[in-house]
Every structure is written in C-alpha cells, then in structure tokens.
Write a structure and sequence with these properties.
about 0% strand
Amino acid sequence: MNPYAPPEAELADLSAQETHFKDAPASTRLAVWLLLVSMGVGLVDLALAPVPAALWAAIAIDCIVVGFIFAMAKGKNWARVTFLLLFLLGLLGLVMMPEQLLQGGALSMAVMAIQSGLQLVAIVLLYLPGSNAWFRGKGQQG
C-alpha cells in the first residue's frame, strides 16, 4: 500500500437522489399550491388595478417568486429560506410604509391581505416537521 496515495471515497450518484414533487410530504405540496394560488390572485390584481411602479418590474418580481416556488417544489432548501426572508422583509415594508397600502385602494388592500394570508399559511406548512425533514434530506444537493 502506498502511504502517499490519496484516500479513496465512494461518490454518491446524485441522479439517483433526484427530488420529485410527488414524493414531498402533503404539507409541502399544499404549501406550494397555496403559493401558486397567491401568485394567481396577485396577477388578477395586476390586471384589474393600476400598478404604481413600472409594469415590467411587477412582472419580473412575479417571475422571480414563481422561480422560488418551483425551486421549493424540487426540494431546494435555499428557496424556502429565501422566500421566508423576503416575506418578512415585505411585512416590515408594510409596517414601515402604511401610506403605500392606501394608495392602491380597497381592492389592492384586499388582495394584499389574501396573498399575505395564503403565504403565511404556506410558510408555516413549509416549516412543519415533515417538510423540514424532506427539505433537509432531499434539497441539500443544490
């Protein structure tokens, strides 16, 4: 045996560890669907109410959030954590700038309340023990 030879390690086959949404716990699947419904509600509001910012910016942000949702559906823990942080920053923004809420009108305020409620329930579901175990076991590859 060569004392200078590097140690040999067996490499795991990452393709065998591919994460499928159908294998996720029910809480994770429900959370992903709630987040998609929340995005749909936001798109309806976007179509009905004028956007105070540039329309392209709102669409770009929605696309990024949908990307996070699909990453969560694949078991990517970083997407779950990032979404939680963005949600908390959004809540902080609402508390710090309440006059922005009033500019959108009653419809926008109702949509924001519905979206926030759906997202809060989804976040709770994403951090239940079954979801935690799934994200830790399946989502660490990337």
